[in-house]
């Protein structure tokens, strides 16, 4: 059994939630997470759902690259790229902070949830500590993955950043909605989404209200406008707003909530459908609870555009380009998807992650024989036609 430090990209809730999920799986398998390092921008406060979970475990927070939105709703690709150069000295100091934290806690291995400072640290130190990188973004590097044909330049920069985060990693694990062939040539294995046990224990019940999750508060303007014209639809929306830190009742049918993991999951289990900015984790949770999803990527957010395409092909729901919720209202009348294949795929995550954690900290001379014996126990996820038996939604 091993002792690990988790390094986590702190923008949004996705990677933080995945870190909690893997912490639970690792503990159940007999491993130990001895510390957490979270990268964020401008000393952004780490959400309480994460700090409450880790308790008194050592926690390091440092400055790390993030997306730039400017004064509008869209991601500013050029400004985001320029940030890496203009603040390089700051990020170099962050890598020094991480190095000190790792040296102080002496882990057997590092588990990296798409945190770019981790790649910089591994490059600086010569990857003395074995590292494993996890994220849906690594699936995009898998040659078997089908992506969108648009925005090739944006995809190039996204994949470049993904490779930077994984510098010095012994393996990259790509989170996938459905089973996909491993890419052994590029050292990328495919694993299911990492869902918290709290999600798996929920009982999904049919509901009438809709649930929304926004990665950027400015995107709420369109939902506000639509809700005024459709007072018959009840909406609960979760956001991270700089001013509205408490529950904000915008109208009788639209209520905004600060990010709260427990309340969010409770409302998801009881909602009629999820409206999302196409973050991977929210979609994965909704699929497990058999909730149809409307996915509206943040403008110019190439990763979310790919997420929406991939998820719609996997039967999650409707991919759209704007928050015209009338589309979702019509879509729900004909949405038909069998989520059983996906739910069965999710159940494999704990077993597969235990294999990868053990393999990471084994001496090199033992790995070949260990993998040979473990591989024979892995399920052959050969997909039948029509995406693993999922009936495709009509869009």
How would you characterize this protein structure?
By secondary structure, the chain is of the alpha/beta class. It has two domains: 3-195 and 348-386, Rossmann fold; 198-341, Glycogen Phosphorylase B (Rossmann fold, 3-Layer(aba) Sandwich), CATH 3.40.50. The protein is 41% helix and 17% strand. It has 16 helices and 14 strands. Strands 3-2-1-4-5-6-7 form a seven-stranded parallel sheet, sandwiched between helices. A seven-stranded mixed sheet has the order 10-11-9-8-12-13-14, sandwiched between helices. α1 links the parallel β1 (3-9) and β2 (32-40). The longest helix is centred in the N-terminal third of the chain and has 18 residues, at 88-105. It is globular and about 60 Å long. The termini are far apart. Mean pLDDT is 87; it is low at 366-395. This is Glycosyl transferase. GO terms for molecular function: transferase activity. Keywords: Transferase.
Topology:
Elements (H helix, E strand, L loop, with lengths): L2 E7 L4 H15 L3 E9 L7 H7 L4 E5 L13 H10 L1 H18 L3 E5 L2 H10 L5 E5 L16 H14 L5 E5 L12 E4 L5 H4 L9 E4 L6 H10 L5 E5 L8 E4 L2 E5 L2 H10 L2 E4 L3 H9 L4 E3 L6 H12 L3 E3 L5 H7 L8 H7 L2 H13 L2 H12 L9 H4 L7
Parallel strand pairs: 1-2, 1-4, 2-3, 4-5, 5-6, 6-7, 8-9, 8-12, 9-11, 12-13, 13-14
Antiparallel strand pairs: 10-11
Helix pairs in contact: 4-5, 5-6
Keywords: Transferase
GO molecular function: transferase activity
Protein name: Glycosyl transferase
């Amino acid at each position: 059994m091993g002792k690990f430090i988790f390094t986590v990209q702190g923008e949004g809730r996705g990677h933080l939630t995945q870190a909690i999920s893997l912490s639970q799986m690792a503990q159940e398998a007999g491993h130990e997470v001895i510390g957490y390092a979270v990268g964020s921008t401008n000393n952004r406060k780490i959400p309480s759902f994460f700090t409450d979970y880790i308790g008194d475990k050592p926690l390091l927070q440092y400055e790390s690259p993030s997306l730039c939105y400017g004064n509008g709703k869209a991601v500013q690709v050029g400004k985001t790229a320029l940030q890496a150069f203009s603040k390089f000295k700051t990020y170099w100091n962050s890598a020094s902070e991480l190095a000190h934290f790792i040296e102080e806690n002496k882990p057997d291995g590092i588990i990296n949830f798409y945190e770019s400072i981790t790649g910089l640290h591994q490059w600086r130190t010569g990857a003395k500590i074995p590292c494993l990188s996890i994220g849906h973004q690594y699936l995009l590097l898998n040659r078997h993955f089908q992506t969108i044909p648009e925005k090739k330049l944006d995809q190039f920069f996204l994949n470049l950043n993904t490779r930077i985060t994984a510098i010095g990693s012994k393996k990259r694990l790509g989170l996938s909605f459905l089973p996909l062939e491993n890419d052994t040539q590029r050292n990328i294995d495919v694993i299911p989404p990492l869902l918290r046990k709290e999600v798996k224990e929920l009982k999904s019940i049919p509901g009438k209200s809709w649930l929304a999750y926004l990665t950027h508060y400015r995107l709420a303007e369109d939902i506000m406008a639509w809700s005024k014209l459709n007072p018959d639809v009840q909406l609960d929306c979760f956001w991270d707003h700089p001013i509205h830190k408490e529950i904000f009742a915008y109208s009788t049918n639209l209520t905004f909530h600060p990010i709260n993991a427990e309340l969010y999951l409770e409302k998801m289990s009881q909602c009629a459908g999820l409206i999302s900015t196409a973050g991977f984790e929210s979609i994965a949770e909704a699929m497990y609870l058999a909730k149809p999803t409307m996915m509206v990527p943040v403008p110019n957010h190439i990763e979310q555009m790919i997420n929406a395409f991939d998820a719609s092909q996997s039967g999650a729901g409707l991919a759209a380009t704007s928050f015209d919720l009338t589309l979702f209202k019509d879509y729900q009348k004909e949405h038909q998807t069998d989520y059983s294949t996906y739910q069965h795929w999710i159940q494999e995550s704990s077993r597969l992650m235990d294999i990868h954690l053990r393999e990471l900290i084994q001496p090199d001379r033992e790995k070949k024989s260990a993998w040979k014996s473990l591989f024979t126990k892995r399920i052959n996820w050969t997909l039948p036609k029509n995406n693993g038996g999922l009936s495709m939604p009509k869009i």
